Each structure stands twice: as C-alpha cells, then as structure tokens.
C-alpha cells in the first residue's frame, strides 16, 4: 500500500523511554560504567540476550546498535504498513545483492533492519517456528542435543506471550494452545480483522486433498494450510525493541543501549581473547573502544556478523591478507553458507472491491482506516499482509530427486510455502482488484556468501545469496508456482477469481521459468554465515555453545575466548556431511536366561548382555571410538543396575561374576576391553551414500556406484571370482522369491555354502550360539588386530550355508528406530528408504504367529505394527525362564529402564519382550521362508545380476571384479574396470560385551550343560513336540537406551545416533553365562552392546587371489565415542542389576563391578569386547549423481548397468537394531525396485 507522507501523523506515547537508551557515547561515557557483557547489535536475538542476561542484577549489559530509535516511526509500528518499512528507507541498511545468475543476472534489494530491534522492526511479523525436523537437524549436525526441537521447546514457550487478536474473535480451531506459551515477553497473536479471502482459503482445504488444513503450523508438524501467527500486540507491531527492551526492562540499572554505534571491529583484549569492540557514531568520525569484563556477544545478523568478523581479521587468512587485513584467526567458513528463501509474487484479478487496491486508490478511505487504527487499534491496519500460510512438499518421486538429494530436513518438512494475501504486492494496474498467492522455496539447497573486497569497514559487504542457484531450488519454485495455480482452481474460488496475471496454469515450463527468473526475489531471511559445527570440528565458525572456534593464528586455545555469536548467522539449514543424529538410542539390552558362552561346571546364571547398537567405530575396530566405549561402559552399568532391581531379590545371588555395582569405572572399562566382542552385525563395507556423492559404494537404490546392473542386497558371503550371480542369504533369498512370483521371470540363486537341511545347530533355536564360529556353516573369518581391544584379532562369523547369516544368527528380530530409516532417506535423497515408506515392506515380510507354548501374549507386543500374512515367520518366546518376570518387574522399579510394549513400533527405547524369527519352535531362516521347494531356475541372466553376498562378501567380489579404488586394484595386479573408491569402506558393526552374575538358582543354562541326561531330555522334548527350553534362542528380553545428552563425550564429538528416539546401547538379558563359565555356580548375563557406533572400518583385499580371505577391520570401539558408550553401557548393566527385583537372586558379579574405576572398566572392555556380527555399509547407497558411495537408491551400482547390490552393505548407517530385519526389508524393497525397472 502506497501512502502519501502527509498522512504520517500519529499520536503515540513512544519515546526514548529511559535514560538507559542513549544516542550519544559522550552521555554514556560520563557515567563511567564498566560492562560485563557487550552485545553488538540491538536486533532480534541481541535484545533477547541483553534482556535475559540483565535479569541477574550482578550482570551489567551494554547493547550497541548501529541504527537509530524505533520510536515514532509509523511504518514499523502499524502492522499493515510493514511493506513500506524497507527498502530505501532510513531504517534499512539498503543493501543490494550481486547479480543473481538464476534471476536473469538481476541485482536485487536486500533489506536488513538499521534500527533498534533490527529486522524484527522491519519484517512482516510472521511467527513460524518451522518443523521439528529442522531443529533436530541442527542438533544432529552440531552434535549438541540442546539444539533439538525437544530441548528448544521450553525456550519457544518461554519467549511467547500468546494473546487474543485485536478484534477478540473466537479463535477456537485456529491454533493449538497446548503448544504455545502465554507468560513470555514476545507477544504473538492471530489475525484481528477478517478479509474476504479468509473463508475461501480455509474452504479450499476441505475441497482439495493436496492442501489439508493444519490447526497449528507451529506444533512441530507444519505441513498443510493454517492461520498465520504474527508478532502483533493489540494492533501494533511487536519487535524485540518493543518487547525485550520494553520500559520495565530498560529501567533496569544494569542494562544500557547505545544507538548510532556502528561496530567496525572486535579487537583482541589479550593474546587469546576478544573482549574489546571498536565503533564509531559518525562515519569518518572518532573511533571509540569499549572492553567487556566477561564476553563480547556478536549479534549483528547474517550480513553484519561476518562483515565484522572479516574486518577483525577472523576469516580466510589468505583472502584477508590480500585485502591488507592482518589475519588473527583462520576461519575459512566465515561468510560462507549464506542461505535464504526465494519468493515469487503471483496475482489474480478478482471479483471484489474489498482488497488493498481500493484504499490505495482512495485517500479518504485510507485516512479513515489510519484514524480508526490510531483511535482504537482496530480495522484493516491491525494485521500484516497475510492471514493464512501453507507449507507443502513436492512429490517424493519428483524427477529432480533422481539427480539431487532432498534438501528438506525430513519427510515432514516443507519444500515450499504458499502465502495468501488479499491484494497485489507491488504497484497494481490502474484498475481492478487482486489477490496474491506467493510461492516461496522454504528448504533451499542453494548456498551463497557474504564477503568483503576492501579493508574499509564502512564499505558495503558483497552479498551473494545465490537465489535459486541450485537446480533443486529452481525445480521446487516451478512446482510451487504450478501448485499455486492448482489451489486457485478449487471450487471455493469459482465465482471470485477472474483470471491470473502473467503466467497461468496452461503456461509451458519454459514460460514459467522465464517468469521465475524475471520476478523471483528474496524473502529476506539470510542465515548460516557463521554456522555452528561440533566442538572440535575443523569446519564452521562457532561451537554449539556459540563460542567462536579457535585456535588463533599465534595462540591455540580451544575457542576464541569471550566472543560468541547468537544470531541467525550461526544457523545452518543442511548437513555439511552425512552426520549422525543427536538423540538416538545408543544401547540395548538382551535379556537371556543363562550364561552366554561356555558354562561353568556348577552354578546357574542369568545374563544381561550389553551391546552398542549405534557405534561410531569403524573397521569394525570394535569400541575403538571413545563414544562406543563410553556407551558400552554406560550399558554395563545399566545392566548392573537392572540386575540389582528388587524384582531379582530372591533370584540373583550376586551381581556379575567378574564385576558388580561396586566396580569402578576403570574396572568396568578393563572388563569391557577383555570381554567385549562383536555382535556379528557387520555393516557398511560397501556403504550407501547419496546419488552423485563421492563417498560410499552404493547409491540409495543399492546399485553399485558408477556401474549399471549390479546391486548389493544382503549380508552373506559368496565365493565367486566375478560378478555373475545372486547370493542365497537373507536379502538374496527374499529378492529371488519375490522376482520369481512373476512366472515370466526366471531366477537363479548361487550360494557358496551348502544346504541348511538337517544341521541341528541351525534348526534348534537354543543351539544358535553353537552354529558359529569354527563350524562348517561359517566362513570362519577373523578380523585384523583391533586397536581398541588390546590388539586382539577376533572371530567374525558369517553364514556359509543356504540362508546365509539368517541361518546362523541368534534369531532376534528388531527393526531399529524410525529415525534410523529416515536418516537413510535423508542421506540417499530417496524418501523410499524412510520409515513410512518401508513400513509396508516390514508388514509384507512378516507372518507373526503365536509362540510355541501358545501363551497369552497380551501386553507383550503391539499387533498394530506387525504383519500376519507374510513369509518370514516371527513370534515371541515360547518357554518362560526364571528371569523373565524379574526383568519386567525391574522396569517398574527403575525409572531409567521403562517398559516398551513393542520395540519394533519405530520407538525402541526401553525394555521389552524380544521378537524372534522362530516358527513353532524351529529356526526360521531366509532359505526356509523365501525359497519355495521345487522352484525351477535357468542359468542365463537376461536382465540383471543381483549381488547379495553381504557386507563382507559383496565388497570382496566387487574388488576382485575390478570395481573399487583403481590405484589399489592396479597395485594388486587386478585390472580396474570401474573406479569406485568407496567399495569396502564404511564398515560399521555393533560391539558387544559379556557381563555375568552368579545367581541363587539352579534353573539356568548351566544345569543342562553339566547334566547330559537333562540335556538329552530337553532335546527329545523339542524333537517330539517342539516345546520346552530349546524352542527359544538365548534371550527373551532386550533393552535399548541412550546415554545422557549432557555426557562429557558430546562436548568433543557429535552424537552418532540417528535421532533423539534412537538408542546408543542395548542390554541383552540371558538366563546363563555366554562365555565359558566356572566349574560351579549358576549365572545370568546382562550384555551391553554399542548400537549407534561412530567407528568405521573396512573390508579390503591384499591379493589378486579371489579365494584368499578378505581383510576385515571392523575397527570395533575405534571411536572415542563408542568406547565411552560401551563404558556407560557397562555401568548401566550394573545399575539395572541393582534393582530390588534381583535382591535375593543375584549373588555377585564376575570380573568388574559397579565400584570398578573407569580404568578398570576400560581394561575389561578392551580385553572382552567382541562384535555382534552385524556388518553393514561396505557398498553404501548415495543419491543418484553423487560421486561418493557405491549404489544408487535403486540399488544399481553407480556408473554400471546390469548390476545391483541387495544386502546390508548398502546401508549408509547401521540401524540401532539386530540387522536381520533390515536385511529382509532391503530385500523386499529391492524386489519392487527391480520389478518396476523391468515392468
């Protein structure tokens, strides 16, 4: 709306309301004050910080604002006048951008607030939080869970004072009070004056399914159309100046504001601290300096902050030197990563006179509206331009995602916004009335920069937002424009919209693109130019505590002392790399009714096995990561606490045989080192990565990167010298079955091993620990010496039999967390790998049946999340053990260990009943479930070879086939066929540690192990009726847990878990001792495992001989994170064992105990950790077009045709779960991908 300046008459009582807001430094200097904190920038975030710091009367705070007062400036007080506040006004910095390549080389205005309140004083007042996933991504990338949605929600509520709208209408159904705050400082409200399009916008949401109504877009779930919330208080604009610097706050004697104070540099107060600011009040005038006693807080915005840092000598040293600026601190990221939203105005001629244009053309009406506002704060001027907003995604199968990853933070985060307004933005034609639907790209992939080209601090910075510079953003904008036209075609607009202006729904893509290039602009939301990164990261500008990263050029502190950046420049909206999540469950517990391993000659045992299920170590390099070791340590402590529950009072005789609740941390760690071993879940040696990425082995479609045809689909091994066939393991048999459902498809499965028939150890569930290692049905691999495990080389079982590792595993069926799969989707850029898209395959795969004893399973699982008509048989335990009830009882006694009715629901945290791949007392394997008896196959591969040899076998075959790192292959005498350096890298596995307790019982595994007559009777019972103790594997309960978010390890490293609901470690409960027991006594085990590891290892070769064993280095606990997790998991095991349930049951632990020192625990971990045998990731997926990874998201090998990879080697991250379920899921989706390719 254009108003004549003669109308700017306003009767307001707003002045410099306190002597604490000063306009002249001389007035401040006379007061002879010192300040603890100096805030550079009196804008949105700066004023919040100043207010909150000055709540403490012992803190003195000074705000330096370059602009002037916000008082009595009509355009930043009247909400509807917001479009007039910028550009080319006194309250705007009046920046312009560089020429924007995607916008026909146009240079556009780039408004930023040059006034107290900063851009909160000149913006359009829209108050939208974004999606929960946006903040969770911050937490993931920074490694600081404090930036997650759940941790920030209290601040969101603390900030808000939600009030009724100006007209006090009934707001029921327009927002959700449960997600808002009502006692904060920042005033938020709904629109206070209706427009004629309001009801039509809402009505259209009932007519078009594509545009659902969302009662509150600020709930964390933003998708859909809803009522805009805005920062308006009783008809006037609410900014950080009017709220956080309101009269009652600036009256504080410890809070001062100096206006017209333009900061030019931050100066070193001492050799390694920055506490001095340099500023002027008139360009060309005298320079002043002030030194803060505690900290400088730089809050100059995403343009101002990097500008000041660069002129202070903080940035890219070589660039600064070339400009004649002395480098103080080399931080190349300063000014990079500028991210902004792009906006496009689309207007429609409408059949109405009640739009903005009427008042714009009628000065009498305009004056009356202003008078109404001035008198009563009512009427059309009480609101900003928009009353409704919509947030939407382009389809997941959009063609652009075949080339590029999805830039959105997650599947519930919008790609674009639609803004609905009752008029035309800009100058309208001389006649007609209009409405607008303005599309905006809300999840941009484009990145720009803020730089300088002069040492003159008063020269404007060089601003290049690179708007629509990414093909993804341009594609989204085009689709958003089409979406606007579809919305305008709803029946609600039939008698209202006459015609669009400019392009329309019949315009060609070329015409739409021309319109976009000529008319797109910025939404003026710059962010990310001083982005956060994890502590210790070599990229980024600030740590998660907002301290500027060190070291200085000539001094090496951990960060630049006393300088923080709390504004939007520290925000980033996309992963710099595939980072692990913040709050994923890190450990799990397996509860087993016995002593896992060799049983002592006497005694009966209960085992609680801890496993690190989100490991960070690579190689497997078990527990080599400090994070993994810490998680294992925490899991063992947890197992001990659980074992001490009252539930076990009359059952557990003693906490662990070798350790207990009194074991010191050192004792627990020593125990972990001595006893931890792999869970034999190796993943990642052919890891997945996004299309086009340079790392990884496979793309998200499981195709080997750079190859056409090969895909990687399973975990089993394969003794073939060249890629010519599929493998008969977990995923391979699934694919073979599903492909052969089509009678026109002939399928041949080539299995390196022999038949699974009549092998007792892979038929009887309880005998599963005997199936490997050193047996005919095992490849009998060993690892390289593991540095974190006292350089021990450990056995690394993989199934050498039909069914692969599904024939030799421990039968646990755990899917992992929803976040595990959503992270796959994020990293691969393919939403088909997300939880919601894979759930149908999970259910399709499952045939959930009653347990062997047909007991009542109510409360032991959730039928709603399972399938009952699939091929893969799963069930609950079919024979009770004496520890079952105690484990569950302990969950009611210890809040740290809650009960979870179904860990396969997508939310895994807590302890629950294990779901098992057992069919009426028999081991259910992929060979049984997915290959039909008598199926005929042919020998000619007319279409594809499907490589499903597992995370060890797949990279081994690829490398011997000449697919891998060309230089390495050449050195081995192998002719390189296709250069894919990611092949065999990224091996990820779970680490496991056995912790046992002597118990007051004879009903444990040990009794039958020492009594051949009893053992024969149990086998006879199983053979006759498929009942008795042999119908189940060693564990009936599992637990999944996280170490605390404030764990010290996260000060150094990011959280490796996929998200806040994903475990760091597992606890496995066993009714006996897994390892060799003493000659007497009975035992139970609580086994910690690191399940969200940070460690990464590799599967490589050192010979051109295809029959030589591959070099397997899982790098178990190789990451400090993993070792830390293992230590904490170990402590957790002891805490669990201390529950009242175990009071009269556990007698004492073996080895370390709850009083063991960290050094003792670490030694135990190094000496005893093993693998869980869950290898994954060695041919990992990556987005199509990515130059890293091995397979595309459709599982085709990158750059090749005719070869796909369909096994866990394609997983970009190992799920926090026993990986059998994931392998089945990969196989199910792979079958559909292959069918679709050949339909």
TrEMBL record:
<dbReference type="GO" id="GO:0016614">
    <property type="term" value="F:oxidoreductase activity, acting on CH-OH group of donors"/>
</dbReference>
<dbReference type="InterPro" id="IPR036188">
    <property type="entry name" value="FAD/NAD-bd_sf"/>
</dbReference>
<keyword id="KW-0274">FAD</keyword>
<keyword id="KW-0285">Flavoprotein</keyword>
<dbReference type="Pfam" id="PF05199">
    <property type="entry name" value="GMC_oxred_C"/>
</dbReference>
<dbReference type="InterPro" id="IPR007867">
    <property type="entry name" value="GMC_OxRtase_C"/>
</dbReference>
<dbReference type="InterPro" id="IPR012132">
    <property type="entry name" value="GMC_OxRdtase"/>
</dbReference>
<dbReference type="Pfam" id="PF00732">
    <property type="entry name" value="GMC_oxred_N"/>
</dbReference>
<keyword id="KW-0732">Signal</keyword>
<comment type="similarity">
    <text>Belongs to the GMC oxidoreductase family.</text>
</comment>
<feature type="domain" description="Glucose-methanol-choline oxidoreductase N-terminal">
    <location>
        <begin position="950"/>
        <end position="964"/>
    </location>
</feature>
<protein>
    <submittedName>
        <fullName>Choline dehydrogenase, mitochondrial</fullName>
    </submittedName>
</protein>
<dbReference type="GO" id="GO:0050660">
    <property type="term" value="F:flavin adenine dinucleotide binding"/>
</dbReference>
<feature type="domain" description="Glucose-methanol-choline oxidoreductase N-terminal">
    <location>
        <begin position="301"/>
        <end position="315"/>
    </location>
</feature>
<feature type="signal peptide">
    <location>
        <begin position="1"/>
        <end position="19"/>
    </location>
</feature>
<dbReference type="InterPro" id="IPR000172">
    <property type="entry name" value="GMC_OxRdtase_N"/>
</dbReference>
């Amino acid at each position: 709306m254009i108003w004549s300046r003669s109308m700017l008459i306003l009767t307001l009582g707003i002045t410099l309301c306190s002597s604490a807001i000063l306009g002249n430094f001389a007035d401040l200097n006379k007061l002879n004050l010192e300040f603890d904190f100096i805030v550079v920038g009196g804008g949105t975030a700066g004023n919040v910080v100043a207010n909150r710091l000055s709540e403490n009367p012992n803190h003195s705070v000074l705000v330096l604002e370059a602009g002037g007062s916000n008082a009595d400036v009509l355009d930043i007080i009247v909400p509807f006048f917001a479009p007039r506040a910028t550009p080319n006004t006194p309250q705007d910095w009046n920046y312009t951008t560089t020429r924007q390549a995607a916008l026909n080389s146009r240079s556009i205005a780039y408004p930023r607030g040059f006034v107290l309140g900063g851009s909160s004083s000149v913006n359009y007042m829209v108050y939208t939080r974004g999606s929960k996933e946006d903040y969770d991504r911050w937490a993931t990338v920074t490694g600081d869970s404090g930036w997650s949605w759940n941790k920030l929600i209290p601040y969101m509520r603390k900030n808000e004072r939600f009030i009724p709208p100006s007209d006090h209408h009934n707001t029921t159904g327009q927002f959700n009070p449960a997600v808002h705050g009502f006692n904060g400082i920042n005033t938020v409200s709904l629109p206070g004056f209706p427009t004629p399009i309001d009801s039509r916008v809402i009505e259209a949401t009932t007519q078009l399914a594509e545009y659902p109504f969302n009662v509150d877009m600020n709930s964390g779930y933003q998708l859909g159309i809803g009522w805009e919330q805005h920062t308006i208080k009783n008809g006037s604009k609410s900014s950080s100046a009017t709220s956080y610097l309101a009269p009652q706050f600036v009256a504080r004697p410890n809070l001062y504001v100096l206006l017209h104070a333009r900061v030019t540099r931050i100066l070193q107060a001492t050799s390694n601290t920055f506490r001095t600011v340099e500023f002027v009040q008139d360009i060309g005038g005298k320079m002043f300096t002030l030194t803060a006693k505690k900290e400088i807080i730089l809050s100059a915005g995403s343009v101002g902050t990097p500008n000041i840092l660069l002129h202070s000598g903080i940035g890219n040293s070589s660039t600064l030197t070339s400009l004649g600026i002395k480098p103080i601190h080399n931080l190349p990221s300063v000014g990079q990563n500028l991210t902004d939203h792009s906006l496009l105005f689309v207007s429609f001629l409408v059949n109405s006179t009640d739009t903005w244009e009427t008042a714009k053309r009628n000065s009498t009406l305009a004056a009356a509206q202003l008078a109404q506002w001035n008198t009563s704060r009512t009427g059309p001027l009480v609101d900003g331009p928009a009353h409704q907003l919509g947030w939407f995604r382009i389809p997941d199968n959009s063609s652009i995602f075949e080339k590029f990853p999805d830039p959105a933070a997650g599947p519930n985060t919008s790609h674009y916004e639609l803004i609905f307004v009752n008029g035309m933005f800009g100058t309208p034609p001389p006649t007609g009335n209009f409405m607008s639907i303005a599309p905006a790209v809300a999840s941009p992939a484009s990145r720009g920069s803020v730089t300088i080209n002069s040492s003159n601090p008063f020269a404007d910075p060089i601003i290049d937002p690179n708007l629509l510079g990414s093909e993804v953003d341009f594609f989204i904008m085009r689709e958003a424009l089409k979406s606007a036209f579809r919305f305008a075609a709803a029946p609600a607009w039939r008698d209202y919209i006459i015609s669009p202006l400019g392009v329309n729904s019949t315009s060609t893509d070329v015409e739409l693109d021309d319109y976009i290039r000529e008319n797109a602009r910025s939404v003026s939301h710059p962010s990310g130019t001083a982005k956060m990164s994890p502590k210790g990261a070599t990229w980024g500008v600030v740590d998660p505590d907002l301290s500027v990263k060190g070291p200085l050029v000539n001094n090496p502190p951990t960060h630049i002392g006393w300088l923080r950046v709390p504004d939007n420049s520290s925000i980033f909206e996309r992963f710099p790399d595939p980072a692990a999540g913040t709050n994923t469950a890190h450990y799990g517990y397996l509860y087993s009714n016995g002593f896992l391993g060799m049983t002592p000659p006497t005694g009966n045992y209960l085992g609680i096995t801890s496993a690190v299920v989100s490991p960070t170590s690579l190689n497997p390099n078990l527990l080599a990561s400090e994070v993994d070791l810490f998680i294992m340590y925490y899991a063992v402590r947890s197992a001990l606490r659980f074992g001490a529950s009252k539930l076990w009072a009359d059952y557990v005789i003693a906490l662990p045989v070798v350790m207990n609740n009194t074991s010191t941390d050192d004792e627990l760690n020593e125990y972990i080192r001595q006893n931890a071993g792999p869970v034999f879940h190796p993943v990642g040696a052919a890891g997945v990565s996004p299309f086009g990425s340079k790392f990884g082995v496979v793309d998200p479609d499981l195709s080997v990167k750079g190859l056409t045809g090969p895909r990687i689909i399973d975990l089993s091994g394969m003794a073939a010298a060249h890629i010519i066939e599929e493998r008969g393991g977990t995923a391979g048999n699934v694919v073979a079955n599903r492909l052969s459902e089509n009678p026109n498809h002939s399928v041949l499965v080539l299995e390196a091993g022999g038949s699974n028939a009549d092998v007792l150890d892979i038929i009887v569930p309880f005998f599963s620990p005997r199936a490997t290692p050193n047996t005919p049905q095992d490849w009998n691999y060993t690892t390289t010496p593991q540095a974190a495990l006292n350089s021990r080389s450990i056995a690394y079982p993989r199934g050498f039999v039909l069914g692969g590792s599904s024939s030799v595993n421990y039968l646990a069926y755990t899917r992992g967390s929803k976040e595990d799969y959503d992270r796959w989707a994020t990293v691969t850029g393919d939403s088909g790998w997300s939880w919601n898209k894979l759930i149908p395959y999970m259910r399709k795969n499952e045939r959930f049946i009653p347990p062997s004893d047909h007991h009542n399973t109510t409360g032991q699982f959730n039928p709603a999340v399972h399938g009952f008509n699939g091929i893969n048989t799963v069930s609950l335990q079919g024979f009770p053990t004496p520890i079952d009830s105690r484990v569950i009882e302990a969950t009611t006694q210890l809040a740290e260990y809650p009960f979870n009715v179904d860990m396969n629901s997508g939310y895994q945290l807590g302890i629950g009943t294990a779901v098992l791949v057992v069919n009426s007392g028999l081991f259910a394997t992929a060979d049984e479930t997915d290959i039909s008896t008598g199926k005929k196959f042919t020998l000619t591969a007319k279409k594809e070879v499907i490589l499903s040899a597992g995370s060890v076998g797949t990279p081994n075959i690829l490398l011997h086939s000449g697919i891998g790192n060309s230089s390495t292959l050449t050195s081995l005498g192998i002719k390189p066929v296709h250069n894919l350096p990611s092949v065999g890298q990224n091996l990820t596995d779970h680490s496991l540690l056995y912790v046992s307790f002597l118990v007051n019982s004879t009903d444990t595994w040990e009794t039958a192990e020492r009594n051949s007559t009893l053992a024969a009777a149990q086998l006879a019972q199983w053979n006759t009726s498929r009942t008795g103790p042999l119908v189940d594997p060693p564990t009936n309960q599992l637990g999944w847990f996280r170490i605390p978010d404030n764990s010290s390890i996260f000060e150094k490293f990011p959280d490796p878990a996929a998200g806040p609901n994903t475990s760091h470690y597992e606890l496995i409960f066993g009714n006996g001792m897994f390892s060799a027991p003493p000659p007497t006594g009975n035992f139970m085990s609580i086994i910690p495992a690191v399940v969200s590891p940070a460690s990464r290892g590799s599967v490589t070769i050192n010979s051109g001989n295809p029959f030589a064993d591959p070099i397997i280095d899982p790098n178990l606990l190789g990451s400090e994170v993993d070792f830390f997790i293992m230590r904490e998991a170990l402590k957790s095991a002891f805490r669990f064992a201390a529950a009242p349930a175990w009071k009269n049951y556990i007698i004492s632990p073996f080895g370390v105990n709850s009083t063991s020192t960290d050094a003792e625990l670490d030694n135990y971990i190094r000496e005893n950790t093993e693998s869980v045998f869950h290898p994954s990731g060695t041919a990992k997926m990556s987005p199509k077009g990515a130059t890293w990874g091995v397979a595309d998201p459709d599982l085709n090998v990158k750059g090749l045709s005719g070869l796909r990879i369909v096994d866990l080697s394609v997983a970009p991250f190992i799920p926090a779960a026993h990986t059998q379920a994931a392998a089945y899921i990969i196989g199910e989706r792979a079958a559909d991908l292959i069918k679709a390719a050949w339909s």
